[in-house]
Amino acid sequence: MVPNTLSGVGSFSGVGSFTADPPPPADAGYFAGGTANPRNAVTKLLFANDSISSISAVLSSNRDLGAGMANSGTAGYSAGGLVSGTGSVATINKMTFQGETMSTLGTGLSVARQGLAGMANSGTAGYFGGGNGPSDVIDKITFSNDSRSTLGTGLILAREALAGMANSGTAGYFGGGGGNNIVDKITFSNDSRSMLESGLSSTRSALSAMANSGVAGYFAGGENTNFVNTVNKYAFSNDSRTTLGTGLSVARSYSYGVAKSGTAGYIVGGNSTTTIDKFAFSNDSRTTLSPGLSVANDSAAAFANSGTL
Length: 309
Hints:
Blueprint: E1 4-6, E2 10-12, E3 18-20, E4 28-32, E5 42-46, E6 51-54, E7 67-71, E8 75-79, E9 82-83, E10 87-88, E11 92-96, E12 101-104, E13 117-121, E14 125-129, E15 138-142, E16 147-150, E17 163-167, E18 171-175, E19 183-187, E20 192-195, E21 208-212, E22 216-220, E23 231-235, E24 240-243, E25 256-260, E26 264-268, E27 276-280, E28 286-288, E29 301-305
Antiparallel strand pairs: 1-2, 2-3, 4-5, 4-29, 5-6, 7-8, 8-11, 9-10, 11-12, 13-14, 14-15, 15-16, 17-18, 18-19, 19-20, 21-22, 22-23, 23-24, 25-26, 26-27, 27-28
């Protein structure tokens, strides 16, 4: 008998034999590494019920100050960071969402660095920008084969401790860092760079970001002279900026962000806190998860599986 395949259902192989397709991976956010021990651990936030758990996959080394981005529905990537006793690294770990398995890309970042930021055009490519040095480098990872290229035009200003978020299919944004209020915009169609006329509402570093793809992106928290709780929102339709009336529940820096596009975004940890703030995209209202992280953590690399974007 010739085997038959039914797309999305499973495959028949011989009489009485049936192999079902595995269920799709659950939509979730992931936080990799950070300052909490063990520093190679990966924590999972399940979007369906906001539960927190640890997974068996771990980073290839203990590190913090790395950056994350994701090819939603397929895999998440954690790049660079600081390894104690070693310094900045160029390593890129890839976690496949189906089965939550970790691997290391043969080609890492073009320049070893920490304090960089990540964002992605889901289904096509992800980008890692900036970092210590300071650096203006933007590396691009093409998802079809995980190859790396470096954009001819980097950030407008070399800086570290910035944040990244994206309107998948259209453009990505790198905001703040180096005590600046600059927001760089990378148009995905040709990787051209521009600068938003309306930058952040204040100069700050060590902020975090997340996005409701197709609608708006958010830059949250950070530090200038003091920690801040400000959340700036950028409408993707015209890149206009507003500031949420309700900011973070705790002013902090070195937090990290993930989002379930269409539903809610989360700003997690920072400054040795366990706090997780959740922003409902329908009205930008804020709640605080209870419990939050099981252990205080900051400077993790974050990425999310939001399904199809």
